[in-house]
Structure formats: C-alpha cells, structure tokens
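Extended Data, panel c. Modelled sequence:
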Amino acid sequence: MLRTVIRFLWRAFKIAIVLLIIAAVTALAVPVSLDVTGRSQYPSLPNGCESVAAAVSLNALGAPIAAETFASQYLPTAAIGSGVSPADAYIGDPFGDGYYCYPEALTAGINAFLQTQNTSLEAKTHKLVSVSEIAMRLHLSKKPVIVWVTVDDEMADRDDAVVWQVNGRSYHPYNNLHAVVIDGISGFKVHLVDSINGDRWMPLTQFIPIYYSMGLRAVYFTD
C-alpha cells in the first residue's frame, strides 16, 4: 500500500514539474508588452538607475512620481564606508558619488511611497527570482519587473581594489551593477527599459547569464 502511494506521489510530482516547465516555456515564448515609458538617468541622477527604474514602473502603474523625488525623499540611503549593506540602503548619493542598492532596499523605498498613495499596490522581492517567474508575472499580473543586470552587458564584476566592512565581513562592491525594467517578452527576447543604454530588446540567451551572474535579483509588484 505504501509503495503504491509513493509511486502515485512520484508520478504526480513529475507531472507537476512537466506542467511547470511547459508553463514557463509558454510564458517566455508568448509575446507580452506593457509599454512602460522610460527616461534617462542623466544628468540629474548619474548613479540613480534604481530610482529611475522605480519611478518609471510606478508611473506605468498609476502611482506617478519623479525619479528625483523618489531618490531624495523615499530611497533609504547610507554613506559610503558606513558598514551598511546595499540590501538595507542605497550606498552613497544617487545624485552624485554613489554606488547602488539591492532589491530589499528599493522595495522598502517604493512601499514607503506607496503608503502615501490611495492604492493597494505593493512592491515585493524574494531571493532568486527566476526568469520564468518574471515571465509569468508579466503575463499574469501585467506589471513590470525591475531586475538587476550589468551596465555593459557583461558578467557581473567586482572591484577588488575597493573593500567595505559590512556586517563584520569584507565586501567588494560591483563595478558594473545596473537596474533596469522588463516590460515585455517576445520571441525569446526580453524588452529592457534602460536608463543608460536606452530601451532595447535582448535575447534570453544573453540576458539569462547576466541576470544569473547578478544573483537573480528583482522587484515585482502586486495588488
């Protein structure tokens, strides 16, 4: 009896995996376009790609805010060398000498702004947001997704010459971290709303290695 139950559960598990794979491939193949209006981060936010990505996403979702206002009033920030993790705050000044933040800090800033609005919209993140999850969220929720990639379309690269002490550990910041918005998929390509390189399509064969090298970091929206 126990063996029969185990066999049944194993078959059900395999069927579920196959169905998930089919759903993921379908989501990546079927076109979707949300037509998010992008903008350049220059000249006002030379190191503010996260703030621009947040603002253009919020504007598309009906909660408009200027990227400069978001960066100055809602984005949590910390001084360079303060020992604060990029997960907790943007390190430096996005208007000048700054580095970056991770999804957790950007999510906190977005939600701080959304709490001032009459909306049920909420920003969320979790560890290791897969490409298939991004695709399914675009299709099902019809909301853009902010992702962490690289500004030069190369693999993630850290600066060995710079070291911070973060939570008692040595930390080398990234040289080429960049945040962009994905607002479309078509023909196994993703559409990037990019505040430095401009709006463009990137093949999944190019995007996936870059995104994985940057740690599968993303912010998505729910309501």
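Residues 2-29 form the longest helix (28 residues). This feature is highlighted in the accompanying rendering.
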